[in-house]
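Sorry, explain these tokens?

***
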Amino acid sequence: MGEAKRRKEALGEQYGQEERILPWVPVSKRQAQAFYQWTTKGAWVGIGIMVAIWLTVRVVGPGLGWWDVQ
């Protein structure tokens, strides 16, 4: 008997279905990983925007004479 058949007999109806993070949470591991990737990209975009705003306020604005930083 092959490993796949043993696994199929052991899991029964759950064989071939995605594994959940926790039994009572209806989120699969693949969905959790996709959410993690999206939030990581979003965090980096937010950091980039924050740096661009900071550079504008501290360097670009005063350099072009828009305002004075005191």
User: Anything to note?
Assistant: Helices lie at 3-11, 29-63.
